[in-house]
Amino acid sequence: MTRAQEASRSFDILTAASVTVFGDVYEPANVKRPPLLLAFHQGGGDARGEYTPIIPRLLAEGYAVMTIDQRQCGGVFEGVNRTVEALPDGVEYGFCDAYPDLEAALSYAHTARVKVGLTFNRALSLSSFVQYSSDADLALGNFRLRYNPREGNDLYVVFNEGLNLDRFDRTPVPPFVNARTLVMKYSYTFVR
């Protein structure tokens, strides 16, 4: 049996159905921004068991590889499917249950998100959401300031901006700022 390649990092993601899916990322040494290959194991298997002989060759060719243990396993490659192992006893899953696992992996591979909320006092709060997509080389930011002096009265100031980060890869060259909006909204409740 081939010795398993050590993962650069392991991760877990949550699917839309609130199932935790486990995976690994393998990165080649000395390659800046390598192309990423997503490798999904066959039904009846597990990612580490199936890709043990393949990953070193892909790394040598300069590829990064991301694998997940989706909810379709068995003993085909004599490995452990970490996702299925973490499911509660008695949970039934079928072939179609792997689809949301694959969707969550695709989302994880290309997008990073940060959400922050601050409350300064009872009336004033700020929330922000920043997202980066390595697939599209875009960054998006949403910042919302809310002033609520009393129930039924709200003032919102919202700033949105989208940025093209690697714009020189395209012809014609798009502008750095993809979109920018500033919106102010005031709501007042007349009848209480």
Tell me about this structure.
The protein has 192 residues and is an alpha+beta fold. 15% of the residues lie in helices and 41% in strands. The chain contains four helices and nine strands, in the order E-E-E-H-H-E-H-H-E-E-E-E-E. The chain has helices at 47-51, 55-60, 82-86, 98-110; strands spanning 9-14, 20-26, 36-40, 64-68, 111-119, 124-133, 138-150, 153-164, 177-188. It has a five-stranded antiparallel β-sheet. Strands 1-2-4-3 form a four-stranded mixed β-sheet. It is flat. The mean pLDDT is 83.
What characteristics describe this protein?
5-stranded antiparallel β-sheet, 192 residues, alpha+beta, 9 strands
Give me the oligomer status. Answer: single chain
| Major sheet strand order | 5-6-7-8-9
Number of strands: 9
Specify the biggest β-sheet: 5 strands, antiparallel
> Span between N and C termini?
73 Å
Low-confidence stretches: none
Strand residue content: 35-45%
- Overall shape: it is flat
Please estimate the helix content.
10-25%
Gyration radius (Cα, Å) is 23 Å
Structural class: alpha+beta
| Count of helix runs | 4
What is the string of helix and strand elements?
EEEHHEHHEEEEE
Average pLDDT value?
83
